[in-house]
Amino acid sequence: MEKVKAKKHLGQHFLKDESIAKDIADTLNLVGYEDVLEIGPGMGVLTKYMLDKPINTYVIEIDEESVTYLDANYPKLKDRIISKDFLRYDINEVFAGKQFAIIGNFPYNISTQIVFKALEYR
């Protein structure tokens, strides 16, 4: 499948620098949780580094084109791709009662809302 084109109306900006993606993935301390939710994985530049770690990686993506790309290119994510809008999704559907980390290269236009939603869940 071809690369996904960024959609301005979704505020998408795809991470392209592999060393930054690896550095972001390496911020996970892996203490007290086994599950990680990546918000807005796009084409999985960050995701691939998380899949190498001893954790259960889940991704949530609003863009159907990106979901199709992830499904085709990351078989390790089978049944762990959530095709929803994070801001409208009930995190308890997957993580009820569990400790988990949130990671991502967040869209600038909703980063504050993402933080508040995460704090609300906490």
UniProtKB/TrEMBL annotation:
EC class name: transferase
Keyword Transferase: yes
Xref: Gene3D superfamilies: Vaccinia Virus protein VP39
Cellular component aspect of the GO annotation: cytosol
Molecular function in Gene Ontology: RNA binding; rRNA (adenine-N6,N6-)-dimethyltransferase activity
Domain of life, per lineage: Eukaryota
Function: Specifically dimethylates two adjacent adenosines in the loop of a conserved hairpin near the 3'-end of 18S rRNA in the 40S particle. Involved in the pre-rRNA processing steps leading to small-subunit rRNA production independently of its RNA-modifying catalytic activity. Part of the small subunit (SSU) processome, first precursor of the small eukaryotic ribosomal subunit.
UniProt record similarity statement: Belongs to the class I-like SAM-binding methyltransferase superfamily. rRNA adenine N(6)-methyltransferase family.
Protein name: rRNA adenine N(6)-methyltransferase
